[in-house]
Amino acid sequence: MSRRRTGIIAALATFWLAVNAVAQEMDRVELKNGSTVYGEVVDAENGTLSVKTDFAGTIQVRLDQIASMYTETPMVLQMADGSIIEARPLAVEDERLVLPEAIEEGGGSYALSQLLRVNPEPWETGEGYRWNGLASGALSAQRGNTETNELDYNVESRWTGLDDRYSTRVYGQVRDVNGTRRAENVTFTSKYDRFLDNDWYWGMSASAERDQFSNIDLRAYVGPYLGKKFDRTPFFILETELGLSYVSEQFTSSPDEEYPGAVWTLDATSRYFGDDLRVYVRQNGIWDLDDRSDVVINSTAGMSFPLIADIEGSAEVSWEYDSGAVATVEELNQIYRFRIGYRW
Question: What span is annotated as the signal peptide, if there is one (predicted)?
Answer without folding.
Answer: 1-23
